[in-house]
Amino acid sequence: MFGLTNKSTQPKQNKKKRSRRSKGPALYNEQQNLGAAKVENSKVSTTRKPLRRTKRKSTKLSNGVAKQANHLASNMRETMIKVTKMRRAERRSRETVAIAKTTPAMTLKRLVRPEQVGDFMSRLNRSLNFDLGIDLGTANILIFAKGKGLVLDEPAYIARDDKTGDILALGEAARSMVGRTPKGISVIRPVQAGVIADYDMTEFMLKYFIRSVVPASRLMKTRIIVCVPSGITPVEKRAILEALLRTGAKKTVLIEEPLAAAMGTGLNDAEHVGAMVVDVGGGTTDIAVLCDTGVVVSESLRIGGDSFNESIIRYIRRKKRLVIGPLTAEKIKISVGTVDRRAKERTIEVRGRDSSSGLPKMVAVNSLEIQRALEAQVMNVLEGVKSILEKTPPELVAAINDHGIILTGGGALIDGLDRVITRSIGIAAYLVESPRYAVIKGVAKALDEMSQLRDTLDELQ
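Structure tokens predicted for Cell shape-determining protein MreB (461 residues):
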């Protein structure tokens, strides 16, 4: 068995060795061939590297040349476009000259009429301008913007620090601080009795309110109409105009309050009308006789809603031994205030400070007491109306008797004023609708004729 196995296994081992030996030269040849191929490849790679570098350089040069060519081509195109435009413009100008030589003058007028150019320019100016109407009252300031309506209605109050001069509040916020400010802070009204009392504060207030309603881009194109009392002096008018000009206004026009009130009630729509207007404002009462939208005779009294409040404060302190402030007096005037002794009696409870002890105190005040407190003020208004009628021509007095006496202004809202004037003067007096806004309505109508109105500053000069 061992012999058989040796015989059987020996040839197999020899075969394996033979196969290895037989494969040895082939493997060697293959390795030699691979080595030669590597050497050849290395030679080829070393010879191709310079070619690749030169090719890249040539590519960069070609790109630079292409960019220069494109740049020159674009410059040539731009030059040709400019030359073409110039030639077209020259050709059009020559054609226009030729048409002008051959076309009659009437035909040219039909092509473009001068009035069309004027209408276009006027429409353009109107679109660029920003027209405002201002009722600069003692108690309130109202601003009307053309095309927008009433854009501002604020009390004419300013709260400031007395030490630093800083403005703390304006308008309603400042009015609510009346009588409630600590030491060192004061609430003022820069306009008193229809005229400027504090120039710097008036200028600041106008700038603040105007810039709050006018876009900054159109501020220099603003044209303003402002109402003033009928009896103010040229110096007082100039002060108002200069304050408006400092806000950046382009044009300023002053209009008397009675005339604006008449326009607001529609009196200017009728021809040859004679009427009397009594405008009771916060600081003044303007009485005027109008004819053909012009003021024939007028007078301004330093009587208004503020003087009514002061009379109420003095009366309650004297009769009731109670100290109250302006806001409380205004509340009393609105609630139970009357100037007619025949009015129905009404009562209100008022809180204040006892003038003797300084302690809080509450008293009852009725409408008849308020009538007695305001009686002297109303008598002054009646005397002013009689004085104006005495200066009025007889023909206009007859017209006033037919049309009656027109009452406007916020102060005219007090109960019984129309009845007292009717009984005392003998001419019917009536309160217009929304008397507080009659003046600003008239200013709104005046804005439609703004282009025809002359700058008031030029008239003063």
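Residues 2-102 form the longest helix (101 residues).
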